[in-house]
Amino acid sequence: MLFEQRFGAREIKFLVSPDRAEQVRIWARSRLAPDPNAGCGGDTYRVTSLYFDTACFDVFHAHGSYGRAKYRVRRYDDALTVFVERKMRTESLVSKRRALIGLDEIPGVGGWFRRRLDARRLQPVCSITYLRTALIGRQGERLTIDDQLFSDRVDAFTMGEPSRGIRIAAAHQILELKYLGEMPALFKELLETFPLHRTAVSKYRTAAAELGLAAKHA
């Protein structure tokens, strides 16, 4: 079981064009190190996530506490293990609770994760897969760029090979800056170098909208 709390954490997102994303990649690769989780000495890996919502799509509509907590199952590349996660966000705190389980354990997943899903009446609704470039700095700051996002409807506790489904956010890539406390000087330099505009973007809400999942509950 892994439990993380980050007081004063900041996660800032930007929607950028493919050309701008590549410019930022080149800039960042000369200043930051590859995320060790990428493996094989690279800085890019595939992420596949299974997302959950209620029958009325309370998470999508951010009703009450549903707007602060997100539950998902996350797989990296073709690993035979996955993380079950709860991520909670307030203005000053990002808290993540996650546990590592076998890929074949997903259908019968239990423990705290299943109890929270049952208590909040959450069921699988869609999967999202994308390629992530991830780079880290000396102070723990992290820059990621997510590209080639695809999503598909899911109605079962399963996660096999990534299903491509439909392309979402096709005209953009998602740049995210993560850091603690005050913005690092390196990220200030980045924002001075490129004309970037902060955007509140959720992969799950984008996917649910483009798949038409929440249309009847609008």
How does the SSE layout of this entry go?
Layout: E1 2-7, E2 9-16, H1 18-29, E3 33-34, E4 44-53, E5 69-76, E6 81-89, E7 93-102, H2 111-119, E8 123-136, E9 142-153, E10 166-167, E11 173-180, H3 185-193, H4 203-210
Antiparallel strand pairs: 1-7, 2-11, 3-8, 4-5, 4-8, 5-6, 6-7, 8-9, 9-10, 9-11
Describe what this molecule looks like in 3D.
The protein is of the alpha+beta class. The protein has one domain (2-217): Alpha-Beta Barrel (mRNA Triphosphatase Cet1, Chain A), CATH 3.20.100. The protein has 4 helices and 11 strands. The protein has helices at residues 18-29, 111-119, 185-193, 203-210; strands at residues 2-7, 9-16, 33-34, 44-53, 69-76, 81-89, 93-102, 123-136, 142-153, 166-167, 173-180. It starts with a strand and ends in an 8-residue tail after the last helix. The model has no long low-confidence stretch (mean pLDDT 89).
